[in-house]
């Protein structure tokens, strides 16, 4: 602790780690079968038991990447990433989304800025829209984040999953015109990073290629302010679904108790084809 | 030290969205295959310094194919490429695929963003939307530029074939020598030429080092696809923290659970962020 010119003690800064110190390790890969660790859900839309992902961590992680796919069936999934340290389990990322409504979806959260202490046991549990369905997961831990940054303490869901997916956002029957849907009435904590996952809602058969532009907003009804303007995503008639797309985490500063919404427009107005589901997550400093 | 900006100062703005048609700004490749076309401006000049940006690409409408795109800024009449040969795959059919890059790059206020592309066939078109942020995650400032660590051909990355033995890794050099030091690494995995595949999954390492002395940077990343998709459904990986000196050799060591020639192949592109 330093003393600075204005009196008192110099505030504690990040425990800064240079990029040159970056290490990585994998947890959960099964190289003999080119596979990852299988997690099984409970009853439909009910989380199953935790499954450990590999051995305990060898060093402090300041960022973590999650890769997943190879589902046992087509389904929607939300999953929790937890750490167990000294016998206590903490959820550090809750209700992460996997939209796998058409067979063979695969996705990843490329670099979640989360701190994981050395010697933690990582584990995952999931809820699926189909009882006892499975998906495979593996993790890569990074000893520092981008810019050598330290990880946040945890990531909280800023939505309430229904049938193991995000909040359905219907752009309405008028093409190229935005319609707003509330994602959460009140965020549970202050967050300084915002992540957006776009899923296919329930649609797996599309009549025409479709495109979306959508804003993520904060603020009370009628007083929304755009945080992320006009994100762009689309899909065609062969894949039929938006292959799950992750945007962010975006820098932000959203106070606890904030209402969040999505204002979305679509190039087609066919009911069902035009609807996406949106899940939001926030990083807690 | 960094010019540190608190999170509370974060601003964002969109460049390139065309709300009247729910589309982005259309970029047209050069007339010849693998030939970059002219630059197209993406919206108006930037209203503030960006330290991070999202680069969304898709809506390839005229002919399915592969793309590489350069993102440039024009400040005071001089154009600089700040992200080169970003890869976009839309090989399956028109308007099928969309990609999103999160790029920790600095863009000065008052810059004109522009993009040009090359395609696996002449005059291919795709749409681009950019969202700029006044700070990066952790309020970090952006890097100066993003360099390609591969040489594209046919609008795609380097073919990596896991070989005819399932569950066994085969190494392919992506570049013999990186052009600059990089402190963040990004990867893109495409389907090479295959658009009709059975379900497939891969594990792959990204490595640095001379032949026979490779060191793993990113261990066993996981990717796959199902038969309905025919192509891998996750494309952009990272950026990840690293520190790779200039003139490093980069390679990809990949295994697959199927041995069918073609189905097992992918193409890999790498980029490094220059501090």
CATH class of the largest domain in chain A: Mainly Beta
Q: Summarize model confidence as the mean pLDDT of chain A.
A: 90
CATH topology of the largest domain in chain A: Jelly Rolls
What is the molecular shape of chain A? globular
> Can you count the helices of chain B?
0
Low-pLDDT segments, ≥5 res of chain A: 1-16
Mean pLDDT of chain B: 92
Strand content of chain A: over 45%
Give the overall form of chain B: globular
The biggest beta sheet of chain B reads: 5 strands, antiparallel
CATH architecture of the largest domain in chain A: Sandwich
Number of strands of chain A: 18
Kindly estimate the percentage of residues of chain B that lie in beta strands according to DSSP: over 45%
Number of helices of chain A: 0
Rg on CA atoms of chain A, Å: 20 Å
H and E order of chain B: EEEEEEEEEEEEEEEEEE
Helix content of chain B: under 10%
Describe the protein's architecture and organization.
The complex is a heterodimer of chains A (285) and B (275). Chain A is globular and about 55 Å long. Chain A has strands at 24-27, 37-40, 51-52, 63-69, 75-85, 88-100, 106-112, 121-128, 134-142, 154-157, 167-169, 179-184, 191-199, 210-218, 225-235, 245-254, 260-266, 276-284. In chain A, a hairpin with a 6-residue loop joins strand 14 and strand 15. Mean pLDDT of chain A is 90; it is low at 1-16. With 285 residues, chain A is mainly beta. Chain A folds into two domains: 19-151, Sandwich (Jelly Rolls), CATH 2.60.120; 167-284, Jelly Rolls (Sandwich), CATH 2.60.120. The two termini of chain A are 21 Å apart. Chain A is built from no helices and 18 strands. With 275 residues, chain B is mostly beta strands. Chain B folds into two domains: 7-142, Jelly Rolls (Sandwich), CATH 2.60.120; 158-274, Sandwich (Jelly Rolls). Chain B has strands at 12-15, 25-28, 40-41, 52-58, 65-75, 78-90, 99-103, 112-119, 125-133, 145-148, 158-160, 170-175, 182-190, 200-208, 215-225, 236-244, 250-256, 266-274. In chain B, the strands form four sheets. In chain B, strands 1, 2, 4, 7 and 9 form a five-stranded antiparallel sheet that branches. In chain B, strands 10, 11, 13, 16 and 18 form a five-stranded antiparallel sheet that branches. In chain B, strand 14 and strand 15 (215-225) form a beta hairpin. Chain B is globular. Mean pLDDT of chain B is 92; it is low at 1-6. The interface between A and B is large, with 78 and 78 residues.
């Amino acid at each position: 602790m330093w003393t600075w010119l204005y009196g008192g003690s110099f505030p504690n800064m990040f425990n800064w780690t240079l990029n040159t110190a970056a290490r990585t390790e994998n947890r959960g890969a099964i190289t003999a079968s080119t596979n990852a660790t299988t997690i099984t859900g409970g009853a439909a839309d009910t989380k199953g038991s935790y499954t450990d992902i590999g051995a305990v961590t060898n060093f402090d992680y300041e960022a973590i990447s999650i890769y997943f796919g190879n589902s046992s069936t087509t389904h929607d999934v939300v999953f929790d990433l937890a750490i167990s340290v000294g016998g206590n389990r903490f959820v550090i990322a809750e209700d992460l989304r996997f939209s796998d409504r058409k067979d063979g979806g695969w996705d990843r959260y490329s670099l979640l800025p989360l701190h994981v202490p050395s010697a933690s046991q990582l584990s995952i549990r999931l809820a699926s829209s189909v009882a006892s369905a499975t998906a495979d997961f593996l993790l890569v831990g990074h000893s520092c984040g981008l810019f050598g940054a330290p990880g946040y303490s945890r990531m909280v869901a800023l939505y309430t999953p229904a049938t193991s997916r995000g909040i359905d956002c219907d752009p309405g029957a008028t093409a190229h015109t935005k319609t707003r849907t509330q994602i959460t009435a009140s965020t549970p904590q202050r967050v300084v990073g915002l992540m957006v996952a776009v899923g296919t809602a329930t649609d797996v058969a599309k009549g025409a290629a479709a495109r979306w532009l959508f804003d993520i907003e904060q603020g009370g009804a009628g007083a929304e302010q755009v945080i992320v303007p006009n994100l762009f995503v689309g899909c065609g008639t062969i894949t039929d679904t938006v292959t799950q797309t992750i945007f962010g985490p975006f820098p932000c500063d959203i106070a606890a108790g904030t209402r969040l919404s999505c204002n979305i427009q679509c190039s087609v107005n066919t009911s069902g084809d035009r609807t996406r589901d949106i899940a939001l997550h926030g990083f807690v400093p | 030290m960094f010019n540190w900006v608190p999170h509370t100062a974060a601003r964002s703005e969109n460049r390139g969205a065309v709300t009247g048609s729910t589309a982005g700004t259309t970029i047209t490749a050069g007339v010849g295959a693998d030939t970059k076309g002219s630059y197209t401006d993406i919206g108006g000049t930037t209203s503030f310094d960006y330290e991070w940006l999202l680069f969304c690409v898709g809506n390839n409408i005229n002919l399915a194919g592969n793309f590489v795109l350069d993102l440039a800024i024009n400040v005071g009449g001089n154009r600089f490429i700040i992200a080169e040969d970003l890869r976009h795959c839309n090989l399956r059919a028109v308007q099928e695929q969309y990609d999103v890059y999160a790029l920790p790059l600095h863009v000065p206020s008052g810059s004109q963003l522009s993009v040009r592309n090359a395609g696996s066939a002449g005059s291919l078109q795709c749409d681009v939307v950019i969202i700029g942020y006044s700070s990066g995650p952790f309020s970090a400032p952006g890097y100066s530029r993003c360099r390609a660590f591969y040489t594209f051909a046919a609008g795609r990355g380097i073919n990596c074939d896991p070989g005819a033995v399932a569950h066994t890794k085969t190494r392919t050099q992506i570049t013999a020598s990186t052009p600059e030091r990089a402190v963040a690494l990004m990867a893109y995995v495409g389907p090479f030429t295959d658009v009709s595949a059975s379900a497939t999954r891969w594990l792959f390492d990204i490595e640095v080092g001379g032949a026979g002395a490779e060191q793993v940077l990113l261990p066993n990343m996981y990717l796959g696809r199902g038969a309905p998709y025919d192509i891998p459904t996750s494309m952009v990986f990272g950026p990840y923290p690293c520190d790779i000196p200039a003139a490093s050799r980069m390679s990809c060591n990949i295994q697959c659970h199927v041995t069918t020639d073609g189905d097992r192949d992918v193409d890999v592109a790498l980029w490094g962020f220059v501090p």
